Amino acid sequence: MKEESKVPEIINKETSRRGFLKGAAVTAGGAIALATIGGVKPREVKAAEAPKAIQRYLFVERQNCTGCRACEYACNIKHEGVVRPSTARIHVLKHKGVVDVPVICWHCDDHPCVAACPTNPKSLTVDPKSNGLIVNEKTCLGEKCMKCAEACPAEYVRVHPDTGNPVMCDMCGGDPECVKACVQQSGKPQGPCLVANTLGFGVNLAYRNVKPVKAAEDMIDLLFYPSKGDRPKTGKSGKGR
Amino acid sequence: MTAPKGGYFGKILEVDLSKGEIKTRPLSDELARKFIGGSGLGAYYATSEYKAHHDPYAEDSFIFVGPGPLNGTFCPGTRASFVNQSPYTGLISHAEVGGHFGSEIKWAGWDGIYIKGKSKKPVWLSIKDDKVELKDASKMWGKDTQATDDMILKEMKDPYARTAVIGPGGENMVPYAAVIIERTRAAARTGTGALMGNKKLKAIGIRGTKAVPTVDAAKFTEAAKVALQYDVDREAWQGIKRWGTGGLLEQKQWVTSSLVTKNFQTTWYPDIEYIGGEQAARTFWKRHVACNNCPVHCMKLGVVRDGKYRGLIAEGPEYETGGLLGSNLLMKDFAGMMAMIELTDALGVDSISMGGVLAFTTECIDKGVLTAADLDGIKPKWGNADTYMELIRKTAYKEGKAGKLLALGVKKMSQKIGKGSEAWAVNVKGKEIAAHDPRGDKGRAYSYAMGQCGGDHHEGDSPDLQARWGMINSLCMCSFVGGVPWLKETPGVVVNMLNPLCGWNMTDEEYWATCRRIITTERCFNVRESISVKDDRLHKRFLTEPLPEGPKKGTLFTAEDEKKMHDSYYKHFGWDDKGIPTDATLKSLGLDYLIDDIQAARKTL
User: Fold this and answer.
1) Residue B137 needs a FRET pair 20 to 30 A away by CA distance; which of A56, A142, B89, B364 works?
2) Confidence of residue B209 (pLDDT cuts 50, 70, 90)
3) How does pLDDT run across B578-595, given as a tens digit for each residue?
């Protein structure tokens, strides 16, 4: 129960370096930054905290995923009103029936997908407030282009089965439903797998550059075979007999 | 005949393996509302298409894989139901299995898969939305379930696809063979694996991209969220979240005294500490796994960290697998037990029946009616995993004398062995029973003896519960989630979801009538196969041998208990004292098409 109640607090707290820098930038003084470290909260930073924090990044603790797909379902309910995982903005890959890996948009600071978009103006843009990706359904070249999917290092981008356009995570405008669903349904006692904006800076590239299947294989080693050479060639984690 | 407004697509995928034909079978709103889906719809097809005394291996035998209307929606914890006439018992049987397979059927735009006929060479069924193909499976034939799953996903070029496959057990038509879903979950107890092997259907791979049509999406989601929240909060599920059903092993030993032990000779097994949920939590489990949208995540995966099986990843122990392949065989060797559980999954045999068969065989050796010579020189010994592992392997391949004998199942084994061995051949209607001893947990007697599949633990522990279970298995909901369909809050929770989803105006009365209709339809099928009150009985071990130890020492399932069980049950469903549905009951439930068959059957019973 402790785990459960702790999580929303962490999420809602504006502890990110970004928020902190923003506060510093507004007053344009190092003294304020020092004051923050000293524990005295300057007024500007407090104002930034005000009603509800805007979440700008997603992060996943892969080893906590139970594979329930509550994130996909919540995403669908928010965007489509009915469940349709093929159009969800988050996917859960089940690998060898042993591990589940959430495949998310990491909302990279360098946005390789946006950089790759060939149209002018760009059909794929970033919402400056929430860091969410917005697809212009009219100008997007769709299935025949998919340069964004090629550029994505995390193999995240999927084609919408009806429109043929890429399906992109818009961060629900800064309040991601998938995170809320994960917190509610997370495994006991290890806690939720999806978290938003607890890092304080953009996602480590080392994380997002791992492709889902590789991440799944890593997970098998991390969870089941921490010491080298333990992994057998047959059985669940291998190719079978 | 009107097309369904919501909840259903109004079409069922029909595959004829003999002709290699793929067709669409319409599903009307009336039929859907009457039989819901899953086990109910399967029972309707079996009763309306088969004649009495049907041969399970006949050309026209079908396997119906049915999701319910709630599959693929926001409703938590939905499953898939495999319905067929069991080649093991000859009765209508349904196996519900978790995972995402059932939902994927809906997302592919189908209300179910109906497979009949027999293929000449091994095939597998590939479904991608409307694109359905039968593909060559000769390369997969002979492979275990894990390797087959791997090959199907590669051939489909889609890591997000879901599979249902059989292993060597199914291929060799071991009558209690299972279908394995997503490598870890088993649709078992129904012989569906053997039937798939008989049809030379190695696997089904499926992937869908559609959404279930919903009449009032906002209202439905609200109702489904109520069901979900209920499962998040419910106190009783908190332990299941932590220990899965494996945690019940200790509970049934120390509290209810209903843990299967030594082929039901006792229920007292203090050594459960070596193989139970707590031991698994300390030394084995690594992660929880959930079905779709489920907050309970009862499945646990772990890895053996030491000894001969070091590095083996296995699922469980669940209550049934840990009971039947654990305490039932007096196992103290945790890793050995997990290896056995994993082997039954990999070879595609039902771990419950397998555990029952192994325990029966060992007792036969103990009592001297069977010798090692009858078992290819293998002498099974209580608690010795190595001999059991070898016997499981032989059974799945029907190899040698031992394999051929064990693949018969306890009832036929005892008939073959003779020498009074039927006294400990514990079965109901020809099938081994699950891991709850009905002397300690008398409610289970209903599930075993009265349940339509026979010997199953998922049939409901009282007449009322059994009616509810009929509905759950047709909706393909899980017993742990989905608004907990067997609690007093239902039918409210379920009806509130169904009405906005399907555009119905179902009332509580209609809900209860549907529950009774589904059970009665299944019963009618079994009555035609000559089942009556004489078969609705527990094995005589429970009536004659009192519990020798434990908190409920001396308890028996008495003849009075049995009488009470029969009377209350038949009265609840409106059947006569032979357990045959009356004409009035059939009429009131709208099952007029069965009246002639039942009248004919009544004369012979």
Assistant:
1) B89
2) very high
3) 999 999 999 999 999 999
Answer whether B150's CB lies under 8 Å from B101's CB.
no
Do residue A241 and residue B310 have CB atoms under 8 angstroms apart?
A: no
**Measured between beta carbons, which residues in chain B are less than 8 angstroms from residue A232?**
311-312
Q: Which of B495, B501, B530 is nearest to B515 (CA)?
A: B495
| DSSP category for residue A240 | -
Does the distance separating the beta carbons of B311 and A232 come in below 8 Å?
A: yes
Name the residue ranges covered by the structural domains of chain B.
11-207, 238-425
User: Could you tell me where the DSSP H helices lie in A65-137?
Assistant: 70-79, 112-116
Looking at every residue in chain B, the average pLDDT score rounds to 93
State whether residue B287 sits within 8 Å of chain A by CB: yes
Å between A3 CA and nearest CA of chain B = 14
Are A55 and A171 in contact by the 8 Å Cβ rule? The answer is yes
**Strand order, beta sheet including B123-128:** B131-136, B123-128, B201-207, B162-165, B179-181, B185-187
**ipTM value > 0.90:** yes
CATH 3.60.9.10 is held by the domain B11-207 = yes
Contact assignment for A73 to B293 by CB distance below 8 Å? yes
CB < 8 Å to A66, chain B = 287-290, 297
**Which class is B238-425 in CATH?**
mainly alpha
Candidates B95, B289, B420; CA nearest to A97 is: B289
- State yes or no: pLDDT of B525 exceeds 90: yes
Chain A CB within 8 Å of residue B208 CB: yes
pLDDT (average), residues B212-226: 94
Instruction: Please check the confidence at residue B150 and state whether its pLDDT lies above 80.
Output: yes
The answer for B155, left when phi > 0, alpha when psi is -120 to 50, beta otherwise, is: alpha
d(C-alpha B425, C-alpha A181), whole Å: 49
B 37-96 near A (Cβ less than 8 A): 72-74
Q: Is the pLDDT at A1 greater than 60, yes or no?
A: no
Contact B295 A84 (CB under 8 A): no
